[in-house]
DNA sequence: TAGTCTAAGATAGTGACGCTATCCAGAGCC
DNA sequence: GGCTCTGGATAGCGTCACTATCTTAGACTA
């Protein structure tokens, strides 16, 4: 398949495909001649995945690159690959990257209470959680992070369901794809449902009372 | 309070404050003289809120403006204000804004099944949900949107808890602030917890099995 | 009261990001 | 033989969220 066909069958412009190749998001086509290369179904598939992640999840190109690199490491387990993928997808918030002792301790306590004993002690996500807790404490929200125990079984059930959806009869690449898509697309799905639920509960509580 | 003091007590640069005033995110100070204005605690508070929304939620400046405008409309109920706020905060995904009949129907069915009968029939979030369902169907995820009934009670519980946290003994502005912060900051909190839970469940299922 | 400082307001510039457009030289097709 | 298309390189563009500079009037300081 030539680059123009790849472009047509994915809806991504030739210029953008070249850009993605340059950035290492997509491997160059198999070289047939000095000025001719061949692209295959893997390229179509990868390109479709990249577009979904960008269009739905607004994943930055740099994170996509890290994701691709994580996928290509054939030595690691699926779990380690997924761990790297999650690190890549973790949104960088502009809050202090090194949280204070107290909030970090709160974060660790939450993880412990949830029973997530498989989470690495040095997982960057723990600091991320601590940073968010810091903001919750500072910002006049009444929500008590410790009291957020309410969330834990619910979130646990959601995540367990999502991991359960992955089809382990497939190859590594497909499984990674499913996990990453799950992380991003189902994350948006979840947030969308939550906004709808907010509207419903907000109406029940506040409608007509000013 | 002068602009330099406002800057110091919020950590936002004078140039940025001026920019926010220009963009209508922040009201100009009370004019004392041709070249002198006075800023008060409301400005400090507003500015802190804006920074949290941007730093944690990456809310675009345009959305912040819509949010401010929603807050300032004194005629509407809290619920209507919140509805406008949610519309402003809804992330624009680059997926077809006008989904096909089928996915829209799926979306409506989900809302109905969840029992969210207070959601306006013309809520833009319904189309947003439909667009995400379209992507799920197209992208090789095994998750069946209809089968996502699993999610509904969980999401409902989360949203109900969050709306319940709002302190209705406060004034309109404070309540709006709590709802918007809840939407954004607790949304990040939720996603962070979910990522941790993913790591845990991914380890249980895949660790050591390649 | 002279001199310095700071304010508000206007306008222009910056840097990151994600493309997009142009150019080039060679190969393929008709 | 002329047109199209290719991969590769490089430069440009549009948006976003600031940031910096300039001007001038008023405020404070000695």
TrEMBL record, chains A, B:
Keywords: DNA-binding. Residues 1-70 form the HTH merR-type domain. Pfam families: MerR_1. It comes from Nocardioides luteus. The keyword Iron-sulfur does not apply. The keyword Lyase does not apply. This is Transcriptional regulator.
């Amino acid at each position: 398949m030539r680059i123009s066909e790849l472009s047509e069958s994915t809806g991504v412009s030739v210029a953008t495909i070249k850009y993605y190749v340059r950035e290492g998001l997509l491997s160059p086509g198999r070289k047939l001649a000095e000025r001719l290369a061949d692209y295959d179904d893997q390229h179509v598939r990868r390109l479709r995945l990249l577009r979904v992640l960008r269009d739905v999840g607004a994943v930055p190109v740099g994170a996509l690159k890290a994701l691709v690199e994580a996928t290509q490491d054939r030595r690691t387990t699926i779990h380690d690959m997924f761990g790297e993928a999650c690190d890549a997808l973790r949104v960088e918030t502009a809050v202090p990257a090194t949280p204070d002792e107290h909030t970090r301790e709160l974060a660790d306590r939450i993880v412990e209470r949830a029973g997530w004993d498989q989470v690495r002690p040095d997982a960057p996500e723990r600091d991320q959680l601590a940073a968010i807790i810091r903001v919750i404490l500072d910002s006049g929200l009444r929500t008590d992070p410790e009291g957020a125990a309410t969330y834990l079984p619910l979130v646990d059930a959601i995540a367990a369901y999502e991991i359960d959806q992955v089809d382990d009869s497939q190859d590594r690449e497909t499984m990674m794809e499913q996990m990453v898509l799950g992380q991003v697309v189902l994350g948006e799905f979840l947030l969308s449902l939550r906004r709808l639920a907010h509207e419903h509960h907000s109406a029940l509580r506040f409608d007509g009372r000013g």
